[in-house]
Fold this sequence. Notes:
By secondary structure, this protein is of the alpha/beta class. It is built from 12 helices and 9 strands.
Amino acid sequence: MYTAGALSLAAMSGAWAIKNRRHRKSINKRDAIFSLIEGKRLDGYLPSAFFIHFGEGYKTGDAAVNRHLEYFQAIDMDFIKVQYEAEFPRLSSITQPKDWKSMPFYKKDYFEKQLYVVKELVKKGKKDAPLIVTLYSPFMSAGHTVGGDLLTEHLKTDPEKVEKGMEIIAESTLIFANECIKLGVDGFLASTQGGEGFRFQDPKIFREYVKPYDLVVMNRIKEACACNVLHICDYVADYDDYSSFVDYPGHIVNCSMKLGNKLYQPSEIYQQFNRPIFGGMEKRGPISKDSKSSLIHTVSSVIKNAPEQFILGAECALLGDIDWKMVRTAVDLAHEQGFG
């Protein structure tokens, strides 16, 4: 566990910070992350990354490629994470569980715009940091197709009929994943939903009709990639526990520190998964709402209560009006306090 005390504003300037920034320039970000995955940590270096959505105008083509690289360079973070902008379209034709048998099968041509962004970022950015691609689970893509509430209702009502649609979606997802693997990505940020506390009173539904399709995809990327992040996504709602996800593959675990009504420390989450933990910060928290001095205090507190195998970040993509300078402040704090 990190034991360095809270950073002051003064510590962000002066000889101490300058010395550590110079030292940090020699750090290879790929070595930093892959060493962590192997159970080691570069001397005194604490990796960090925060992800954002780039919005309209930056979702496809060279505009998306350039925006990803601009953000990566501005923040000095330790991943390049490719946003996923190929959500399945909403379909009005699926209104009942029996309709899932007509779920469209999206082939490679559907993902071409997204794959162009991946290809260019591999070419231009992979040498500088591990490059991972956001990968939505079949359950999440099913939710995009009909809406999360209707999908949940269908799974409660007649999960066997919904299962046919899940099979089709998983096959489409594997097409995208396999094409990314061919392009040379280091791995994926593999996102899962469906196990939130409110979702299913009967745990059998998640266990038998959601999780197997998560694992079809995640086991494939486990075979092919050396840097996968298991992202337990709390965008919709909180979780009561993570027991259903402990056996999921993923070299790194990214999740909320909040379970039920309790806020845990990163070191406690690490004890559940025994893998590097990525997070510690709230997606709606200090980076978008607090002053710089408050942000410094929060980051220092998170680091103090983190395990050795840790990457500072947020539980999900940052939400709200994000000031890139504040994000950079948090990343700098991690890199610099890691030297302490």
